[in-house]
Each structure stands twice: as C-alpha cells, then as structure tokens.
Specification:
Strand order of the largest sheet: 2-1-5-3-4
CATH topology: Ubiquitin-like (UB roll)
Helix content: 10-25%
Order of helices and strands: EHEHEEE
Structural class: alpha+beta
Number of strands: 5
Strand content: 25-35%
CATH architecture: Roll
Distance between the termini: 40 Å
Number of domains: 1
CATH class: Alpha Beta
Number of helices: 2
Largest sheet: 5 strands, mixed
CATH superfamily: Beta-grasp domain
C-alpha cells in the first residue's frame, strides 16, 4: 500500500525532501515504518525519542497501524537541557 511521508524541520533539511510517496506492507505500524526509514535514511535517526509522528494530522503512538493513503508527518521536537 502507498502512504505519503512529509518531512519537516531537520528531517527535511537532511533528506533534502519535502515529501515522498512510499510503499509499505499492509498492517505496517509507525514503529515498523520508523525502522524502515532508519535503514533508508541512516543519518536521520528516526528511532530517537525526540522523533514524533502525525498520521493525517493527529499525533500517534508507535503501535498505530497505517492504512492506504495515510499522510505521515515526521518531525523532531526540540528540548532544552
């Protein structure tokens, strides 16, 4: 199935992409997507605690199952010490 990834902030700069259409297996979760992206974009560290995912403009947990046509926004939160 196909989903749209939207990169923001640091990810957008490092990936040099605003968005990307990707194919994933049915039943893929956000955690699994994070692992897939870690392999594809090794310098971006998608498994970081600071990485947040929105699916169709709603914050989701790692166990969220993706469906055909979902729009997944990925960004990294900034935290002070």
């Amino acid at each position: 199935m196909k989903i749209t990834l939207k990169f923001s902030s640091l990810f957008k700069m490092l990936a040099r992409l605003d968005k990307e259409l990707v194919s994933v297996d049915e039943g893929t979760t956000i955690d699994q997507l994070s692992q897939i992206l870690d392999q594809k974009y090794q310098a971006l560290h998608f498994n970081s605690e600071k990485t947040k995912f929105l699916v169709n403009n709603k914050f989701v947990n790692g166990d969220k199952i993706l469906t055909e046509g979902d729009e997944v926004s990925i960004f990294q939160t900034l935290r002070g010490r």
